[in-house]
Amino acid sequence: MAGKQKAKLADISTEEKIKDAARTVFTKKGYAATRTREIAEAAGLNLALLNYYFRSKEKLFEIIMLEKMQKFFSVLLPVINNPDTSLDKKVADITANYIDLLTANPELPLFILSEVRNNPEFFIRVTQKENFIRDAIFVRQLQEKRPGINPLQFLLSLLGMCIFPFIMKPVFRKMTDTSEAEFEQMMLERKDLIPGWTRAMLRTK
Amino acid sequence: MAGKQKAKLADISTEEKIKDAARTVFTKKGYAATRTREIAEAAGLNLALLNYYFRSKEKLFEIIMLEKMQKFFSVLLPVINNPDTSLDKKVADITANYIDLLTANPELPLFILSEVRNNPEFFIRVTQKENFIRDAIFVRQLQEKRPGINPLQFLLSLLGMCIFPFIMKPVFRKMTDTSEAEFEQMMLERKDLIPGWTRAMLRTK
DNA sequence: ATTCAATTTAATCAAACGATTAAAAAATTT
DNA sequence: AAATTTTTTAATCGTTTGATTAAATTGAAT
């Protein structure tokens, strides 16, 4: 109905300007606390144009949220279903992938998880393939190597060690008086620490 | 100015009714998405009375938030500064304390952490004693036992293993098709798993 | 029974917010 | 240059929201 049919360069640029601003504001404040006027201002344009392009706050948000969810899970799902890598390699890949991703996007997990809390229906709607994880190759490899250990328990610990520090980051930094540079260095070190630690965990019992 | 000077039984009960409702709604939806009218309704009374007791949404929220923060940190800080327990005992205490607390209050960490994101100033304002953690006995004990391991790295992993599953709970349950009962059982098992796993981690290198 | 506080009811305010509209202006295409 | 599209401007609409007020009602204490 409205006009951006011809996808010219200017069009793409404006649409992307709005999405860039929306990414920034939504991930910083969450859906409920975000004002469409603030997105427009951050994009350097007016509110009318925002609605002209995306019809509503909710539609714009869903676009951003789907992007973020894909970003968050695309560093996990391909790895745990890779038939060509060892268990150790998978652990190292998951660790490195998440620490790299979250070093560049520290706000990503908290954004997704808090919006899932506020609107579980949306997450349930867009999540396909129920047993993607339980049937994953990663899980099978774990069961073979350590039948005594529940693979999901191990996965939760691995993800907790990788992701939790970034969720906790502002609190942790304040409570331990850790600088931004120090924190980044710590996260780098974790890329080695976590694979070693998880190997030790798998040797237990 | 307003009247609840004589703290009768009815008074306390009403104030507590409002706070109960506020706890429920705030922790479920977060500050921004919470409507004071919804709190009043959940408390079974009217909006006027809510403002009569707590003056504003923000003041009521700060009361709840302080409660929640204390609840969240009071299972950690006393333990890591306990001079009378071993390192192993401290790890077991932290694990058991958090899993018990979060089984009863699964929404607690996400509530606190997402509100810290939305309003870091408040957290910084109410957090005293900067180096409480770096100087903790727990940290010293770790340094003695394993000088090669950064105690804060270890602490992050321990907390990640304890807390992260609850933050991830809705997503995890959906993606692994795990029932509520199954999840609770898993968290129970973690009370044994995590101390064993962290002991193995400390044996590395 | 009277007094005083607690609570409800209902109306209302001012501000914020998402969204829409029409018309002008600027930019791009033809 | 003319036509078309994109963007701005500015006003406005209908709701929602946090908050306040005054008057009525209820309940408990004196």
Task: Write a brief structural summary.
Chain A has 205 residues and is an all-alpha fold. Chain A is 74% helix and 0% strand.
- Total strands of chain A: 0
SSE pattern of chain A, N- to C-terminal? HHHHHHHHHHHH
**Average pLDDT reading of chain A:** 93
Low-confidence stretches of chain A: 1-10
Instruction: State the helicity of chain A in percent bands.
Output: over 70%
Shape of chain A: globular
Tally of alpha and pi helices of chain A: 12
How is the biggest beta sheet of chain A arranged? none
Largest interface: A-B, 58 and 58 residues
Please state roughly what percent of the residues of chain A sit in beta strands, choosing from under 5%, 5-15%, 15-25%, 25-35%, 35-45% or over 45%: under 5%
Oligomer: homodimer
Write down the Rg of chain A. 20 Å
Distance between the termini of chain A: 65 Å
- Going by helix content, strand content and strand pairing, the class of chain A is mainly alpha
Task: Lay out the secondary structure.
Two copies of one chain form a homodimer.
Chain A: H1 9-29, H2 36-43, H3 47-54, H4 57-73, H5 77-80, H6 87-104, H7 108-118, H8 120-126, H9 137-145, H10 151-167, H11 169-176, H12 180-203
Helix pairs in contact in A: 1-2, 6-10, 6-12, 7-8, 10-12
Chain A binds a DNA duplex (30 and 30 nucleotides) through α1 and α3.
